[in-house]
Amino acid sequence: QVQLVESGGGLVQAGGSLRLSCAASGSIFSINAMGWYRQAPGKQRELVARITSGGSTNYAYSVKGRFTISRDNAKNTMYLQMNSLKSEDTAVYYCNTVPTPSWAAWGQGTQVTVSS
Q1: What gap in Å lies between CA 114 and CA 61, rounded to an integer?
Q2: Cα atoms found within 13 Å of the Cα of residue 71, Cβ hemisphere only
Q3: Measuring CA to CA, which residue among 91, 90, 89 is closest to residue 63?
C-alpha cells in the first residue's frame, strides 16, 4: 500500500515562504500524476498544483506565479515551494494522485498558517 507523508508546514507571516515535502512509501511518481491539495476551514478541498509523470505542471489560478511543484523520483519525494504567501493560503496541505486521489494513500497533511 502506497502511503504519503506530508511535512514542511508551519506558521509564517504574509509574504513569506515555505517548502512542503511529500514522501511516498512506494515508487509512484514515474507512473502517476501527482498533486498538492489543500483544505481550508469552511472551504472545499481544492487542487492547487499538479505534476505529471512526464514532468508537466499545472497550477490553480489562485497560486499560479507563487507556487512551484517539483519532484525527485529517485527519492520518491515531491515538493511544493510556496512563495509570497497570503492569509488565504492557510490550509492543511495534502499530496495525492491526480486526477483521482487514492483514498488509501491520504496522509495526515501538513498545516500551513499564514498570518495576515
Answers
A1: 19
A2: 27
A3: 89
Coil, strand or helix: which one is 83?
A: coil
Measured CA to CA, the distance from residue 31 to residue 36 in angstroms comes to 17
What is the maximum span of the chain, computed from C-alpha positions, in angstroms?
39
For the stretch 61-113, pLDDT in tens is 999 999 999 999 889 999 999 999 999 999 999 999 999 999 999 999 999 99
Burial 11-42 (b: 16+ CB within 10 A, else e): ebeeeeebebbbebeeebbeebbbbbbbeeee
* Residue 31 confidence (pLDDT) above 80: no
Number of helices and strands in the chain (H, E): 0, 10
Residues 77, 16, 33: CA angle, nearest 5 degrees: 25
DSSP string, 18-64: EEEEEEESS--TTTSEEEEEEE-TTS--EEEEEE-TT--EEE-TTTT
User: Could you tell me which residues come within 8 angstroms of residue 116 by beta carbon, excluding any fewer than 6 positions away?
Assistant: 14, 87
